[in-house]
Amino acid sequence: MKLINQVLIDYKLNVQLIENTDLTKMKNIKVGIDLSMQTMKELRKLTQLQNSFPTQEDEIHFFKNIKPFVLGRLKFFGELQKFELKWPKADVKSQKKYIRSSIKTLDHFRIDNLLFWHYIKNKETRNDSLYFLRNNYQVGIGGDMSQFIVDPEFYTSYDILKARFVAADLLAKHYKRLQLKLSNKGSPVNSDLTLNKNQTWNGSKTDLVELIHALHAAGA
Description:
By secondary structure, this protein is an all-alpha fold. It has one domain. The protein has helices at residues 2-19, 26-47, 56-85, 92-112, 114-121, 128-131, 145-150, 159-185, 205-217. The protein is globular and about 55 Å long.
């Protein structure tokens, strides 16, 4: 667990710097995705080491707290990327409507997983051995069995769902900050993709091609 804890410490320091940047900018979101993906790869390798979890409590702690902290942020940055790609540019009304729709989606997700959401929010522990131990895999509401089948050594019944709650909390805070910004500004908020005729592309040709492909895939 010592190596795992060190990876987590390093990640927390670096991801905090990213979270403090302007997350309406695609380049900052991409840095967050890259960091989170690399950290997930490191954690996966460490869990494959012999005696990576000396006790069941260590294994539960990893899959209940450590992995969802990182995976949740990977999902958060991924959702932000999609959010920015579809960000409306026309007017404040369209932007406010888009944010309200995004918040509504988060509310539906919580309602659909209300029992587990209360379990996590109330810091309950009675079912931890069922939810967060690999040899006790349970198929339940919100569970993602496909990942467990592909990689059973790195997944439990509910660590992915816990990560989705982490992402949902971060997204809710981001959306509320945007709402406040729109209310104070009174005019459309330009995202990283809202370009005018006086702006120029300073990135590489490869980055531009990737961006165009992403826009096309999003139907934008």
